[in-house]
Protein backbone atom coordinates (compact mmCIF):
# COMPACT_ATOMS: atom_id res chain seq x y z
CA UNK A 1 0.00 0.00 0.00
CA UNK A 2 1.45 3.39 -0.93
CA UNK A 3 1.62 6.40 1.39
CA UNK A 4 -1.36 8.13 -0.24
CA UNK A 5 -3.52 5.09 0.52
CA UNK A 6 -2.17 5.09 4.07
CA UNK A 7 -3.37 8.65 4.52
CA UNK A 8 -6.86 7.82 3.28
CA UNK A 9 -6.92 4.76 5.53
CA UNK A 10 -6.25 6.91 8.61
CA UNK A 11 -8.97 9.41 7.65
CA UNK A 12 -11.45 6.58 7.02
CA UNK A 13 -10.89 5.49 10.64
CA UNK A 14 -12.01 8.94 11.87
CA UNK A 15 -15.51 9.53 10.42
CA UNK A 16 -16.33 12.28 12.96
CA UNK A 17 -13.13 14.24 12.39
CA UNK A 18 -13.74 17.98 11.87
CA UNK A 19 -10.21 19.39 11.91
CA UNK A 20 -7.33 17.88 9.95
CA UNK A 21 -3.79 19.27 10.32
CA UNK A 22 -0.60 18.03 8.67
CA UNK A 23 2.59 19.95 9.50
CA UNK A 24 6.04 19.42 8.02
CA UNK A 25 5.32 16.10 6.33
CA UNK A 26 7.70 15.16 3.53
CA UNK A 27 8.14 12.03 1.46
CA UNK A 28 11.02 11.08 3.77
CA UNK A 29 9.12 11.51 7.03
CA UNK A 30 6.08 9.78 5.57
CA UNK A 31 8.08 6.56 5.15
CA UNK A 32 8.93 6.21 8.84
CA UNK A 33 5.59 4.71 9.79
CA UNK A 34 2.46 3.71 7.97
CA UNK A 35 -0.80 2.20 9.24
CA UNK A 36 -0.65 -0.47 6.54
CA UNK A 37 2.55 -1.77 8.16
CA UNK A 38 0.50 -2.64 11.24
CA UNK A 39 -2.11 -4.66 9.35
CA UNK A 40 -2.41 -8.34 10.35
CA UNK A 41 -0.26 -10.88 8.55
CA UNK A 42 -1.91 -12.10 5.37
CA UNK A 43 -3.80 -8.85 4.74
CA UNK A 44 -3.94 -7.79 1.10
CA UNK A 45 -1.08 -5.24 0.75
CA UNK A 46 -3.04 -3.39 -1.95
CA UNK A 47 -6.69 -3.39 -0.87
CA UNK A 48 -9.22 -1.04 -2.50
CA UNK A 49 -8.96 2.54 -1.27
CA UNK A 50 -11.42 3.26 1.55
CA UNK A 51 -14.54 5.14 0.49
CA UNK A 52 -15.29 6.65 3.91
CA UNK A 53 -14.12 10.22 4.41
CA UNK A 54 -14.93 12.67 7.22
CA UNK A 55 -16.93 15.85 6.67
CA UNK A 56 -14.11 18.26 7.51
CA UNK A 57 -14.58 21.86 8.61
CA UNK A 58 -10.89 22.81 8.81
CA UNK A 59 -7.99 21.51 6.70
CA UNK A 60 -4.38 22.60 7.28
CA UNK A 61 -1.40 21.34 5.28
CA UNK A 62 1.75 23.31 6.14
CA UNK A 63 5.37 23.13 5.03
CA UNK A 64 4.75 20.07 2.91
CA UNK A 65 6.91 18.66 0.11
CA UNK A 66 4.81 15.70 -0.93
CA UNK A 67 2.09 14.51 -3.32
CA UNK A 68 -0.49 13.69 -0.64
CA UNK A 69 -2.19 17.14 -0.74
CA UNK A 70 -3.32 16.31 -4.28
CA UNK A 71 -4.82 13.05 -3.00
CA UNK A 72 -6.68 15.00 -0.32
CA UNK A 73 -7.98 17.51 -2.86
CA UNK A 74 -9.19 14.70 -5.14
CA UNK A 75 -11.07 13.02 -2.31
CA UNK A 76 -12.69 16.30 -1.21
CA UNK A 77 -13.90 16.86 -4.78
CA UNK A 78 -15.53 13.47 -5.21
CA UNK A 79 -19.34 13.35 -5.60
CA UNK A 80 -19.52 16.99 -6.70
CA UNK A 81 -17.42 18.11 -3.74
CA UNK A 82 -19.85 17.04 -1.03
CA UNK A 83 -17.01 16.54 1.46
CA UNK A 84 -15.65 20.08 0.90
CA UNK A 85 -18.84 22.06 1.32
CA UNK A 86 -18.46 22.42 5.11
CA UNK A 87 -14.94 23.85 4.95
CA UNK A 88 -14.71 27.17 6.75
CA UNK A 89 -10.92 27.25 7.20
CA UNK A 90 -8.47 26.06 4.55
CA UNK A 91 -4.66 26.31 4.70
CA UNK A 92 -2.51 24.89 1.89
CA UNK A 93 1.11 25.94 2.38
CA UNK A 94 3.36 23.93 0.08
CA UNK A 95 7.11 24.18 -0.42
CA UNK A 96 9.15 23.22 -3.48
CA UNK A 97 8.22 21.30 -5.54
CA UNK A 98 4.64 21.32 -4.31
CA UNK A 99 1.90 23.29 -5.99
CA UNK A 100 -1.54 24.43 -4.88
CA UNK A 101 -3.28 24.13 -8.26
CA UNK A 102 -5.25 20.98 -7.35
CA UNK A 103 -6.80 22.94 -4.47
CA UNK A 104 -8.32 25.67 -6.64
CA UNK A 105 -11.44 23.57 -7.41
CA UNK A 106 -11.75 22.88 -3.65
CA UNK A 107 -11.80 26.64 -2.99
CA UNK A 108 -14.61 27.04 -5.53
CA UNK A 109 -16.69 24.24 -4.00
CA UNK A 110 -16.16 25.50 -0.44
CA UNK A 111 -16.50 29.20 -1.34
CA UNK A 112 -19.88 29.76 0.34
CA UNK A 113 -18.59 28.83 3.82
CA UNK A 114 -14.90 29.77 3.69
CA UNK A 115 -13.97 32.43 6.24
CA UNK A 116 -10.20 31.89 6.38
CA UNK A 117 -7.93 30.91 3.48
CA UNK A 118 -4.17 30.44 3.19
CA UNK A 119 -2.83 29.44 -0.21
CA UNK A 120 0.58 29.24 -1.88
CA UNK A 121 1.00 31.52 -4.92
CA UNK A 122 3.89 29.95 -6.79
CA UNK A 123 5.34 31.29 -10.03
CA UNK A 124 5.05 28.66 -12.75
CA UNK A 125 6.51 29.31 -16.18
CA UNK A 126 5.40 27.21 -19.10
CA UNK A 127 8.92 27.07 -20.54
CA UNK A 128 10.78 26.04 -17.41
CA UNK A 129 10.43 22.35 -16.47
CA UNK A 130 11.96 23.05 -13.05
CA UNK A 131 8.93 25.19 -12.21
CA UNK A 132 6.39 22.60 -13.36
CA UNK A 133 5.92 19.99 -10.65
CA UNK A 134 3.62 17.01 -10.98
CA UNK A 135 0.21 18.63 -11.45
CA UNK A 136 -2.66 16.39 -12.58
CA UNK A 137 -4.25 17.24 -15.92
CA UNK A 138 -7.65 17.94 -14.35
CA UNK A 139 -6.04 20.72 -12.31
CA UNK A 140 -4.08 22.16 -15.23
CA UNK A 141 -6.77 22.33 -17.91
CA UNK A 142 -8.99 25.02 -16.30
CA UNK A 143 -5.97 27.31 -15.83
CA UNK A 144 -5.29 27.53 -19.57
CA UNK A 145 -7.98 30.13 -20.10
CA UNK A 146 -6.14 32.57 -17.82
CA UNK A 147 -3.13 34.68 -18.76
CA UNK A 148 -1.30 33.72 -15.54
CA UNK A 149 -1.39 31.09 -12.82
CA UNK A 150 -1.99 33.79 -10.21
CA UNK A 151 -5.11 35.06 -11.97
CA UNK A 152 -6.46 31.50 -12.02
CA UNK A 153 -6.10 31.14 -8.24
CA UNK A 154 -7.42 34.63 -7.47
CA UNK A 155 -10.48 34.11 -9.64
CA UNK A 156 -11.41 31.21 -7.36
CA UNK A 157 -10.73 33.32 -4.26
CA UNK A 158 -13.11 35.94 -5.63
CA UNK A 159 -15.95 33.42 -5.30
CA UNK A 160 -15.72 33.51 -1.47
CA UNK A 161 -18.27 36.13 -0.38
CA UNK A 162 -17.72 35.72 3.37
CA UNK A 163 -13.91 35.57 3.52
CA UNK A 164 -12.46 37.51 6.50
CA UNK A 165 -8.79 36.41 6.43
CA UNK A 166 -6.65 35.79 3.36
CA UNK A 167 -2.96 34.78 3.46
CA UNK A 168 -1.25 34.61 0.06
CA UNK A 169 2.23 33.05 0.25
CA UNK A 170 4.16 34.14 -2.83
CA UNK A 171 6.98 31.88 -4.07
CA UNK A 172 8.77 33.47 -7.06
CA UNK A 173 10.71 31.60 -9.71
CA UNK A 174 13.77 30.10 -8.00
CA UNK A 175 15.82 29.46 -11.15
CA UNK A 176 16.15 32.98 -12.56
CA UNK A 177 19.28 34.39 -10.98
CA UNK A 178 19.23 37.97 -12.25
CA UNK A 179 16.13 40.06 -11.73
CA UNK A 180 13.34 37.69 -12.68
CA UNK A 181 10.38 39.75 -13.84
CA UNK A 182 7.23 39.17 -11.85
CA UNK A 183 3.73 40.59 -12.33
CA UNK A 184 2.47 39.11 -9.09
CA UNK A 185 1.84 42.33 -7.16
CA UNK A 186 0.33 44.00 -10.25
CA UNK A 187 -2.07 41.08 -10.63
CA UNK A 188 -2.96 41.36 -6.93
CA UNK A 189 -3.57 45.11 -7.27
CA UNK A 190 -5.74 44.46 -10.34
CA UNK A 191 -7.70 41.90 -8.35
CA UNK A 192 -8.59 44.24 -5.49
CA UNK A 193 -9.36 47.05 -7.98
CA UNK A 194 -12.15 45.02 -9.60
CA UNK A 195 -15.65 46.44 -9.70
CA UNK A 196 -17.59 45.36 -7.80
CA UNK A 197 -14.93 44.56 -5.16
CA UNK A 198 -14.29 40.80 -5.03
CA UNK A 199 -13.93 40.38 -1.24
CA UNK A 200 -16.01 43.08 0.42
CA UNK A 201 -15.86 41.28 3.80
CA UNK A 202 -12.06 40.98 3.96
CA UNK A 203 -10.70 42.26 7.29
CA UNK A 204 -7.10 40.99 7.27
CA UNK A 205 -4.86 40.46 4.25
CA UNK A 206 -1.50 38.79 4.85
CA UNK A 207 1.16 38.67 2.15
CA UNK A 208 4.13 36.31 2.21
CA UNK A 209 6.82 38.04 0.13
CA UNK A 210 10.48 37.43 -0.79
CA UNK A 211 13.59 39.60 -0.44
CA UNK A 212 16.70 38.76 -2.51
CA UNK A 213 19.84 40.76 -1.83
CA UNK A 214 17.73 43.81 -0.92
CA UNK A 215 15.58 43.32 -4.02
CA UNK A 216 11.91 43.21 -3.06
CA UNK A 217 10.62 40.69 -5.59
CA UNK A 218 7.58 41.95 -7.56
CA UNK A 219 7.29 45.13 -5.45
CA UNK A 220 7.03 48.58 -7.08
CA UNK A 221 5.83 51.90 -5.68
CA UNK A 222 3.04 52.01 -8.24
CA UNK A 223 1.56 48.62 -7.37
CA UNK A 224 1.87 49.16 -3.60
CA UNK A 225 0.03 52.46 -4.06
CA UNK A 226 -2.73 50.87 -6.16
CA UNK A 227 -3.19 48.11 -3.60
CA UNK A 228 -3.42 50.60 -0.73
CA UNK A 229 -5.86 52.88 -2.57
CA UNK A 230 -8.24 49.97 -3.13
CA UNK A 231 -8.11 48.29 0.27
CA UNK A 232 -8.28 51.48 2.35
CA UNK A 233 -11.36 52.69 0.47
CA UNK A 234 -14.09 52.30 3.10
CA UNK A 235 -16.84 52.29 0.47
CA UNK A 236 -15.29 49.27 -1.23
CA UNK A 237 -13.77 47.38 1.69
CA UNK A 238 -15.60 48.53 4.85
CA UNK A 239 -14.30 45.66 7.02
CA UNK A 240 -10.60 45.92 6.09
CA UNK A 241 -8.42 46.65 9.11
CA UNK A 242 -4.98 45.07 8.71
CA UNK A 243 -2.24 44.30 6.19
CA UNK A 244 0.50 41.94 7.33
CA UNK A 245 3.65 41.42 5.29
CA UNK A 246 5.80 38.39 6.10
CA UNK A 247 9.20 38.68 4.39
CA UNK A 248 11.39 35.67 3.66
CA UNK A 249 15.04 36.30 2.75
CA UNK A 250 16.50 34.18 -0.05
CA UNK A 251 20.08 33.90 -1.33
CA UNK A 252 21.54 32.45 -4.53
CA UNK A 253 23.06 28.99 -4.07
CA UNK A 254 25.76 28.47 -6.70
CA UNK A 255 25.99 24.70 -6.32
CA UNK A 256 22.23 24.28 -6.74
CA UNK A 257 21.80 27.12 -9.22
CA UNK A 258 18.70 28.36 -7.46
CA UNK A 259 17.44 30.77 -4.81
CA UNK A 260 16.90 29.24 -1.39
CA UNK A 261 16.08 30.33 2.15
CA UNK A 262 18.87 32.31 3.79
CA UNK A 263 20.31 30.50 6.80
CA UNK A 264 22.74 32.24 9.12
CA UNK A 265 23.46 32.81 12.81
CA UNK A 266 20.85 34.18 15.18
CA UNK A 267 23.04 37.26 15.66
CA UNK A 268 23.11 37.94 11.93
CA UNK A 269 19.35 37.46 11.67
CA UNK A 270 18.83 40.05 14.41
CA UNK A 271 21.27 42.47 12.77
CA UNK A 272 19.47 42.25 9.42
CA UNK A 273 15.92 42.39 10.75
CA UNK A 274 15.51 46.11 11.53
CA UNK A 275 16.74 47.54 8.18
CA UNK A 276 14.87 44.81 6.30
CA UNK A 277 11.59 45.55 8.07
CA UNK A 278 12.10 49.31 7.61
CA UNK A 279 12.59 48.89 3.86
CA UNK A 280 9.46 46.80 3.40
CA UNK A 281 7.41 49.02 5.71
CA UNK A 282 8.44 51.99 3.59
CA UNK A 283 7.17 50.21 0.45
CA UNK A 284 3.70 49.71 1.98
CA UNK A 285 3.64 52.97 3.99
CA UNK A 286 0.30 54.10 2.53
CA UNK A 287 -1.46 51.48 4.63
CA UNK A 288 -0.26 53.22 7.79
CA UNK A 289 -2.09 56.40 6.90
CA UNK A 290 -5.43 54.71 6.42
CA UNK A 291 -8.27 55.17 8.89
CA UNK A 292 -8.20 52.40 11.50
CA UNK A 293 -5.82 50.32 9.36
CA UNK A 294 -2.81 48.54 10.85
CA UNK A 295 0.38 47.65 8.97
CA UNK A 296 2.49 44.83 10.37
CA UNK A 297 5.79 43.79 8.77
CA UNK A 298 7.76 40.80 9.98
CA UNK A 299 11.00 39.26 8.69
CA UNK A 300 11.36 35.50 8.75
CA UNK A 301 14.75 34.48 10.07
CA UNK A 302 16.18 31.00 9.75
CA UNK A 303 19.20 30.33 11.94
CA UNK A 304 21.59 27.41 11.55
CA UNK A 305 21.40 24.69 14.15
CA UNK A 306 24.37 24.24 16.38
Structure description:
This protein has 306 residues and is of the alpha/beta class. Helices cover 28% and strands 23% of the residues. The protein has 9 helices and 12 strands. Strands 1, 2, 3, 4, 5, 6, 7, 8, 9 and 11 form a 10-stranded mixed β-sheet that branches. The chain has a two-stranded parallel sheet with strand order 10-12. α4 links the parallel β3 and β4. α3 (68-81) packs parallel to α4 and α4 packs parallel to α6 (149-157). The protein is globular. The two termini are 38 Å apart. Residues 28-39 and 127-132 have low confidence and may be disordered.
Give a short summary of the structure.
The protein is of the alpha/beta class.
Low-confidence stretches: 28-39, 127-132
Elements, N to C (H/E) = HEHEHEHEHHEHEEHEEEHEE
Helix share, percent: 25-40%
Compute the number of strand runs: 12
Termini gap: 38 Å
Helices and strands: which structural class? Answer: alpha/beta
- What share of the residues does DSSP label as strand, in percent? 15-25%
Radius of gyration: 20 Å
Mean pLDDT: 82
